[in-house]
Amino acid sequence: MRSVDDLIAEGVSGRRVLLRADLNVPLDKTTREITDDGRIRASLPTLQALRDAGARVIVAAHLGRPKGTPDPQFSLAPVAARLGELLGTEVPLAADVAGDDARAKVEALADGGVLLLENVRFEAAETSKDDAERGELADRFATLADVYVDDAFGAVHRKHASVFDVAQRVPHYAGRLVARELEVLTRLTTDPERPYVVVLGGSKVSDKLAVIEALLPKVDRLLVGGGMCFTFLAAQGHGVGSSLLEVDQVETCRRLLAEADGRIVLPVDVVCADRFGADAETSLTPADAIPDDLMGLDVGPLTVDLFTAELVDARTVFWNGPMGVFEMAPFQAGTRGVAEAVGAVDGLSVVGGGDSAAAVRVLGLDEDAYGHISTGGGASLEYLEGRELPGLAVLAD
Ligand code: ADP
Ligand code: MG
């Protein structure tokens, strides 16, 4: 895999570089302001290195999940503004993805200049399952640039036009963020120092069961919190009220618990609410006695103590997924407590996942306490599962 530093050594001055970055930041639902700019900051080293080397940088990125058509709600305008502030230069935003306006603005780019293309998911072809459809968009990307650099680690598990197909059409390089992520993930998959403890939470239960399946033989302990713990609690025969539950996964969870032979550790207490809201009525209940009319929105203090005890002697930790709905104040303590225990580990601690990384920053935790904060949740999980990631495979070609 050639890196952006190889490209810079080759000489990139005056060349048009299409840089796929992961700028998929969370926005406030009402004001559309960026609530955490971590991903934008993480993309700066590669971007700045290219500018310093005199490249004309054309940044491609996605934001949220628009439905394959322009939608002002998902415009990258706030990202262009923030990127400009952080770089100390004007970052114009093309009105389209790879159309007339993009072409005109690329023409106008000066050496060291930066242009942001509009949300690549405004084109249905970006995420299409049809190779020819993606290929047509990738052809248009390819005419915009001389070389391609992929620094969007958070998207390398996607076979998308701006991640996969374009790299087949122009000389391609890995950005610094992608290189760093790979280095850390390799340390987690090749002979990790033990005890190796994985902490999983978040909301995407069925997504993450595959990871549990793959990691279970490799880890010493697996701590499960967040929305996904309720499917496990149900598998143990407990009622979970109106908590997040994936009924069709209960059987799988039962089998995993049996296979784990005590290595899967579940919450012992839960912060429950009468509804999903920051002003809900809350109560603390044992994990095996959640009332029918309540929903679990965070792990309780006894669980934080239990998980902390399981983490204290760990030498390698991977944490993905908040322990609760940390976006709302009454359900933050579980994530905070477990995040602190992960940060206190003497060894390699890796935080993976967009929301988990955002939680570290939003809760004001010390980012330096962690060995690495990954920007890509799905991508790091699929890597740990041992799957081939299309965006990486194409870079290695
Ligand atoms: P990551 O982005 O770190 O991979 P996920 O996207 O899987 O994490 O999950 C993050 C989301 O999970 C957060 O928005 C959080 O509110 C939600 N979540 C955590 N615990 C619960 C719960 N008990 N019930 C519902 N949602 C939860
Ligand atoms: Mg997420």
What's the quick description here?
The chain has 397 residues and is α/β, with parallel strands linked by helices. The protein contains 16 helices and 14 strands. A hairpin with an 8-residue loop joins strand 9 (269-273) and strand 10 (282-286).
Radius of gyration: 22 Å
User: Structural class given helices, strands, pairing?
Assistant: alpha/beta
Shape: globular
Count of helical segments? 16
The fraction of residues assigned to DSSP E strands is: 5-15%
The mean pLDDT is: 96
Q: In which range does the helix fraction lie?
A: 25-40%
The number of E-state strands comes to 14
Distinct ligands: adenosine-5'-diphosphate, magnesium ion
Low-pLDDT residue spans: none
Distance N to C terminus: 7 Å
**Sheet with the most strands?**
6 strands, parallel
> Order of strands across the biggest sheet?
8-7-6-12-13-14
**What order do the helices and strands follow?**
HEHHEHHEHEHEHEHEHHEEEEHEHEHEHH
